[in-house]
């Protein structure tokens, strides 16, 4: 276990105040090295050797260490990170057919939301991640696999149950003092925490929003997504209207389609009616099987009827490709064995 303070994820100013270095330009130099994926102070060749040594004695680059790194045949990479308190989390690099490289980041160790179709939900909840622990996932992926253009908060955990730290990490990714990425290239995905959506709209950089809707039928949704009991479909719609009225862009409605649960044409009609007045794109995702979960994949026939109904109602939709299944890195499949989380 490494107890030295880490510098990854800090702005040049924060590096100066953390290390006590007086020369302002040194903060920027160290920041640039970290941004480029340096893994040791030894690599920072434009710093005097004595300073590199001093830094190495008192600080480390990352507070997390890469425990495993695997790459699937389709290029998807999954890493498991060990945290300072021995907890384990996962992060994924997705490469789509246009070669767009997206980091999928976790925001919590486990998840308390209990969606019944999700492997992470079965882990239970251990703790929230700090903004630095979120940022380090991106930096590890980038230093292992090269430059990354996009970020989605769709790994382990519900980002909007950890809104404060998620907003801090968004500020780092988008601000000029941080990585200076465009907020348009970042998507926060939620199961529908209405308070968090409002806070994101009011306080965060203008990132994209994805909502795991799954079903617009209150009974079905409550059954498979217990969050519906506290954040009802009506209050969710109100929060999304607020997000769009405050400048939010088109919202992605994620719909994991599960055989015999929400794969009927009528489900698509309900989604169309519920989303009236919102600018949305429905992401139709055939549910990814997981051995521990007693659901089945939808049939191709039902999936096609579902999509045809969306089309008939003039609701834009995307049929999502399946990537990373070999690594259990596809949607709803991120989970580490909680027994390995020893804290
Ligand atoms: S789908 Fe998201 S919110 Fe639901 S249990 Fe899984 S990680 Fe948590």
Give a short summary of the structure.
With 343 residues, this protein is α/β, with parallel strands linked by helices.
Q: Can you describe what's shown?
A:
With 343 residues, the chain is of the alpha/beta class. It folds into two domains: 12-58, no CATH class; 65-340, Aldolase class I (TIM Barrel). Helices cover 34% and strands 18% of the residues. It is built from eleven helices and twelve strands. The chain has helices at 12-19, 24-35, 49-58, 119-123, 131-145, 163-174, 194-203, 218-224, 233-245, 265-274, 300-312, and strands spanning 65-71, 77-82, 88-95, 101-104, 108-110, 125-128, 150-153, 186-190, 208-212, 251-257, 280-286, 317-319. A ten-stranded mixed sheet has the order 1-2-3-4-7-8-9-10-11-12, covered by helices on one side. It has a two-stranded antiparallel ribbon with strand order 5-6. A hairpin with a 5-residue loop joins β1 and β2 (77-82). Bound molecules: iron/sulfur cluster.
């Amino acid at each position: 276990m490494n107890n030295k303070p880490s510098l990854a994820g800090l702005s040049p100013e924060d590096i100066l105040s953390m290390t006590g270095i007086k020369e302002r330009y040194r903060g920027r130099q160290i920041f640039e090295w970290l941004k480029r994926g340096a893994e040791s102070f030894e690599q920072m060749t434009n710093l005097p050797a004595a300073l590199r040594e001093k830094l190495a004695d008192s600080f480390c680059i990352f507070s997390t260490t890469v425990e495993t790194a695997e790459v699937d045949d389709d290029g998807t990479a999954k890493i498991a990170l060990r945290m300072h308190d021995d907890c384990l989390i996962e992060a994924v690099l997705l490469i789509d057919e246009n070669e767009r490289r997206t980091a999928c980041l976790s925001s919590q160790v486990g998840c308390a939301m209990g969606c019944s179709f999700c492997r992470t939900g079965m882990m239970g909840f251990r703790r929230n991640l700090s903004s630095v622990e979120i940022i380090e996932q991106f930096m590890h992926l980038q230093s292992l696999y090269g430059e990354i253009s996009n970020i989605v908060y769709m790994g382990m955990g519900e980002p909007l149950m950890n809104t404060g730290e998620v907003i801090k990490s968004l500020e780092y990714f988008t601000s000029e003092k941080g990585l200076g990425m465009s907020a348009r290239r970042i998507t926060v995905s939620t199961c529908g925490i209405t308070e968090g959506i409002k806070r994101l709209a009011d306080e965060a950089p203008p990132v994209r929003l994805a909502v795991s809707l799954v079903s617009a039928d209150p009974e079905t949704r409550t059954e498979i997504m217990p969050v519906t009991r506290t954040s009802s479909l009506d209050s969710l719609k109100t929060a999304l209207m607020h997000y769009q009225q405050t400048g939010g862009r088109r919202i992605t409605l994620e719909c994991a389609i599960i055989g015999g649960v929400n794969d009927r044409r009528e489900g698509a009609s309900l989604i169309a009616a519920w989303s009236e007045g919102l600018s949305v794109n429905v992401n139709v995702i055939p549910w990814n099987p997981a051995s521990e979960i007693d659901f089945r994949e939808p049939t191709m026939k039902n999936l096609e009827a579902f999509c045809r109904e969306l089309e008939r109602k003039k609701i834009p939709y995307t049929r999502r490709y399946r990537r990373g299944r070999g690594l259990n890195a596809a949607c709803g499949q991120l989970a580490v064995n909680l027994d390995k989380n020893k804290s």
